[in-house]
Design brief:
Elements lengths: L2 H5 L3 E5 L4 H13 L2 E6 L8 H4 L7 E4 L5 H11 L3 E4 L6 H6 L1 H21 L5 E5 L25 H21 L5 E7 L1 E3 L9 H10 L4 E3 L5 E6 L1 H16 L6 E4 L6 E3 H12 L5 E3 L16 H7 L7 H17 L1 H23 L1
Helix pairs in contact: 4-6, 6-7, 8-10, 10-12, 12-13
Length: 357
């Protein structure tokens, strides 16, 4: 049984389905034949992938707030999901400096709410909380952080995700293990791909600049990050969800990141984008007195490689190429954007199944 066959006809709930990663995950599962339900706020950018590719037509979509426990619990009880992917979050570092209260209430209490709903459920067999590589106390080491390193993110976003991890750990020890539910958290690095229009992210900044015939402004060109195409962590999440569904002993805390060669500086990534976009695209650095952001961050992904056999398939170069392909298709028409999205999912699925099944 390959991964698409496993998810066929499974009842799956995605919180945060209207976001960038959530939209891609919803479309993947709809192509797999899952019965997909989504619970999320409306998209917070215009344009956004959720609307461009009409993602709500591929699931039963509930636009609501993860902080509303009563609504969330009624929804989960009604649909009785077997598998839950928790992506709903305030996902931006710089936004968290502007709105720390909203960031903590969404990322911490939102996790408490979904964990409490899963605790009360008699249908959930697999639960995955998606956090971030920024949950670790960052010493600016040159080696990758392992899952056993201390969790203590610096800024309100990163710290709230550290708290989200700890909430999940507590619920798992106190409640989920007794119910034989497979529960994991996944800590992914920076993702890129078609349809991300977030503010203060390098690839969306590149897209906005070239579409408006401006030079790309890069604020921290020497910062090192682990960059990967959005399909890399999403398929890792799907693999974790599947493995712990059939064997809860495989549940745990997993780093999900690219090969070491794909830990690039922001300037290197911007150069890759300009090369793939063409048309004379250029970038330049600029200085600003912005809030603190880590300069160096890398993950050690030995655990997921050894326990689940997962490894990245697309390089950072391929990731940028696929992002440019989708963006140029979207510039032509929304229908072309969806076709490219589906083609990229199917291409990745073929490679993934060759590796694992």
């Amino acid at each position: 049984m390959d991964i698409s066959e496993f998810y066929k006809e499974k009842i799956v709930l995605i919180t945060g389905h209207s976001g960038f990663k959530g939209s891609w995950l919803t479309r993947i599962l709809s192509l797999f034949g899952s019965e997909v339900y989504g619970y999320s706020l409306a998209p917070n950018t215009n344009p956004n992938l959720f609307s461009i590719c009409k993602i709500s037509s591929f699931c039963t979509s509930r636009i609501d707030d993860i902080r509303n426990f009563e609504h969330l619990n009624l929804f989960l009880n009604k649909i009785k999901p077997e598998i839950v992917f928790h992506l709903a979050a305030q996902p931006l570092v710089r936004e968290s400096y502007l709105h720390p209260l909203e960031t903590y209430s969404t990322n911490v209490m939102g996790t408490v709410n979904i964990c409490e709903c899963v605790k009360k459920s008699d249908s959930v067999k697999s639960f995955l909380n998606i956090t971030t590589d920024k949950v670790y106390f960052n010493n600016e080491w040159e080696w990758g952080y392992r899952e056993i390193e201390p969790l203590d993110g610096y800024d309100p976003y990163s710290n709230s995700k550290s708290c989200s991890e700890l909430v999940t750990h507590s619920y798992n020890r106190c409640f989920f293990k007794n119910k034989k539910i497979g529960v994991s958290t996944a800590r992914a690095g920076n993702v890129i791909g078609g349809g991300d229009f977030s503010v203060d992210r390098i690839i969306p900044d590149c897209v906005r600049a070239v579409i408006n015939h401006r030079n790309i402004l890069v604020r921290n060109p020497n910062s090192v990050r682990p960059y990967q195409h959005v399909l890399e962590p999403l398929f890792a999440y799907l693999l974790i969800g599947m493995k712990q569904y059939t064997n809860p002993d495989l549940a745990g805390y997993y780093n999900v990141g690219p090969s070491e060669s794909d830990c690039l500086t922001t300037g290197e990534l911007a150069s890759l984008f300009c090369e793939k976009w063409g048309d004379g695209a250029k970038w330049e650095s600029y200085n600003e007195n912005g809030p603190h952001e880590a300069n160096f961050l890398r993950l050690d992904c030995s655990k997921i490689r050894s326990l689940l056999g997962w490894k990245p398939i697309w390089s950072a170069r391929t990731a940028v190429e696929k992002t440019v392909e989708w963006t140029k298709a979207w510039n032509r028409s929304s229908s072309e954007a969806l076709n490219v999205m589906d083609n990229q999912i199917n291409d990745y699925l073929l490679s993934f199944n060759k590796e694992y099944f």
